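Troubleshooting log. The previous run stalled partway through. Resubmitting the same two chains, unchanged.
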Amino acid sequence: DQQVKQNSPSLSVQEGRISILNCDYTNSMFDYFLWYKKYPAEGPTFLISISSIKDKNEDGRFTVFLNKSAKHLSLHIVPSQPGDSAVYFCAASAIDTGANSKLTFGKGITLSVRP
Amino acid sequence: KAGVTQTPRYLIKTRGQQVTLSCSPISGHRSVSWYQQTPGQGLQFLFEYFSETQRNKGNFPGRFSGRQFSNSRSEMNVSTLELGDSALYLCASSLFRQGAREQYFGPGTRLTVT
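Second attempt completed without errors. Output:
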């Protein structure tokens, strides 16, 4: 059961334009969402996160939007740069009654930014 | 501050063997989680350790085990290796078990089972 879904496996955009990466989730207990970026042969790098009490969080060129009613979040990168070409993972977490916290990841989307 | 380190970076083993992977978290981080990444499957959660205790476990067979030491360093062990265990194994550390949710990943150990 895929609780975090990144339905598009890849995205290609022109340098300078906006990249929009989408993510859907099914578990209503998720209350914290994160985006990670991964280059080949490296571990994922934390990009930006958002708590369920917010609907937007911005950090430089990166903005994450959360639509709780639709169980949907998106990562906007503006302007896109060739160095942004990587695999992007959406992740979600929830604290259960046992006070355990783990990250549930989507399968990732490969972003290619064309010069 | 040094990041998460994992050793070895690459490993080739034969079916039926066992393997131990090591992870040193960021200094001061007490939580260590392990993930398996395979093509097309994203990152699958294996387990989390905090204060030397396993706090959470994913849906993996008992051949996968781990432990955490008093200095927060962690090891994971896979016994009776199968071809399907070939994957990138990632370790991540975080400051707390809850509250600070961001996990910081190491470069991973690429395990190939032949």
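Takeaways: The CA atoms of residues 62 and 69 of chain B lie 20 Å apart. Chain B has a mean pLDDT of 91.
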